[in-house]
């Protein structure tokens, strides 16, 4: 999946597009994996440039290959839809 490099996304819209939680997007921003813009002063507004999304998705794909193909991890055990709820 690739998004338009020139697009700008809100956290909620990006989370919906990728079918992940907003917390996942915020964690990626906080960890430095996903670049974000702060627009305005004070609290401001968080926006994510499309080119940053593509860089992040490429890094996720590389981690997936390393873990699931080279590392032998089970993708089923990592998938949040199949994870058991404690």
Topology of this protein?
Blueprint: E1 8-9, H1 11-18, H2 22-31, E2 37-39, E3 45-49, H3 50-70, H4 75-78
Antiparallel strand pairs: 1-3, 2-3
Brief write-up:
The protein is mainly alpha-helical and 86 residues long. Helices cover 50% and strands 12% of the residues. The mean pLDDT is 91.
Question: Which descriptors apply to this entry?
Answer:
86 residues; 4 helices; three-stranded antiparallel β-sheet; mainly alpha
End-to-end separation in angstroms reads 32 Å
Oligomeric state as shown: single chain
What Rg, in angstroms, do the CA atoms define? 15 Å
The average pLDDT value, as a whole number, equals 91
Query: What best-fitting shape do the alpha-carbon axes yield?
Result: elongated
Secondary structure tally, helices: 4
Tell me the strand order in the biggest sheet: 1-3-2
The overall strand count is 3
In terms of DSSP E residues, the strand content is 5-15%
Helix content: 40-55%
Low-confidence stretches are none
Largest sheet: 3 strands, antiparallel
Order of helices and strands: EHHEEHH
Structural class from helices and strands?
A: mainly alpha
Describe the structure.
By secondary structure, the chain is mainly alpha-helical. 50% of the residues lie in helices and 12% in strands. The protein contains four helices and three strands. It has a three-stranded antiparallel beta sheet. Strand 2 (37-39) and strand 3 form a beta hairpin. The chain starts with 7 loop residues before the first strand and ends in an 8-residue tail after the last helix. The relative contact order is 0.15. The model has no long low-confidence stretch (mean pLDDT 91).
